[in-house]
Amino acid sequence: MHERILIVEDEQDVAELLRYNLGKAKYRTLTAQSGEEAIEVVRCQTPALVLLDIMLPGLDGWEVCRTLRESNHGKSVPIIMLTALSSEEARIQGLTLGADDYVSKPFSMRELLLKIRKSIDRQQTLNMIMAKAQEQDTSLRYLVHELKNSMNVIGGFSALALQKGEAQNYLRMINAAAIHADSLLDNASLLSRIENQRGLLPMEPIDIGAMVEEVAAVFRDTAKNRHIEIIVVNNKSSLIMGNSTAVRQVLMNLLSNAVKYNRFGGKVWMIVEGIHDGINISIMDEGCGIPSDAIPKIFDKFYRADGTEPIKGAGLGLYIVKLLMEAMGGKIFAKSKTGVGSTFTLSFLKSNTCLEYPDKNEEKVAHIL
Ligand code: ADP
To answer: What is d(CA 254, CA 345) in angstroms, rounded to the nearest whole number?
Structure first.
């Protein structure tokens, strides 16, 4: 238990009796002797429940209840009104103003404790349901964001094919985007699974050089429209351990950013290089860069750095990249200088490294679970 309960009561002996009994029932208590003080305590200390007397000096309990329900801090805190007024009208007025329950003085402490527990439990269940709904909303936004990217590719290349009559070339890109959109739909629950740390991403060896080339090819024509060149540097073919849908998604999100935040005529490098026990892939651009104070926040859900508003975005791409990398036991680093460009580096374990050290791999799988 140990939840904090605010007692709003100007009669010292009643307040003391409540504090004593709530303490015995393992609650922590806060006290306020006037309506104004109660509103301030709720604002600063967000109690789990408010026990609210009606007859108070200054603002009375009705006003306090109304003010709390209209404020951000107090709109969902459970309120039990506690008063000598026992008429039906008083009871109805309290409940109409948004109180959760009503107890008349003199009251039974056992009954009051039961009502307190019930109100707190109900609120906690409600909070859980709200968090779940928000999570689902995030998954939906993610899906819309990514499907929109695929639809842009499909729309763009089919228009070019019609315009230039070089269908064969563009059909390859359209097909790749359609396959990606399809796998996105197959993985619609991926994000919420990973967010809940419940999902285990099936891992497999991936030829990362080939996948980098494949993703670069999808973006090359779009980039050309702004005279941006995508250069792949990959000296030898390397196998990493990952989930191919997730790795493709990560590369697409980073390359899409490197192109859209780049300057007209800029370059993007995708560099695959071996490090001691793994493979690093760096995506480097010559774009606007990211201010140093924004870098720690760019992986947060819905975050967009100041100044990037004119460029379309949902602030979800990097959040998803980070979740997917964590789910695969990989890492991501960002370096940037405003006016010069940004580099995002992905770090994966080599496929053969995982096979040589099965314990290490098991540890990572356990972490995802
Ligand atoms: P989105 O691009 O949809 O806004 P992201 O999560 O992909 O969302 O990126 C978050 C923010 O990080 C972007 O809004 C932008 O401010 C910044 N950012 C990401 N990648 C780059 C980049 N390559 N160059 C400059 N800024 C970037």
So the answer is: 10
Nearest Cα to Cα of residue 83 among 58, 50, 61 = 61
Q: Ligand 1 pocket by C-beta < 6 Å: which residues?
A: 253, 257-258, 261, 285, 287-290, 298, 303-305, 308, 313-319, 342
Q: Under CATH, which architecture does the 4-107 domain have?
A: 3-Layer(aba) Sandwich (3.40)
Helix axes 208-224, 109-164, angle to 10 degrees: 70
Q: Structure pTM?
A: 0.59
Atom of ligand 1 nearest to the CA of 316: 6
Pick the CATH number of 129-199 from 1.10.1760, 1.10.1660, 1.10.287, 1.10.10: 1.10.287
Model confidence pLDDT, tens digit, residues 46-93: 999 999 999 898 899 999 999 999 998 888 899 999 887 767 777 777
Query: How far, in Å, from the CA of 290 to the mean position of ligand 1?
Result: 8
39 alpha carbon to ligand 1 midpoint, in Å?
A: 40
CA–centroid distance, 308 to ligand 1, in Å, is: 8
For domain 201-368, say whether CATH 3.30.565.10 is its number.
yes
For 331-363, the pLDDT digits (tens) are 999 999 999 999 999 999 877 544 333 333 333
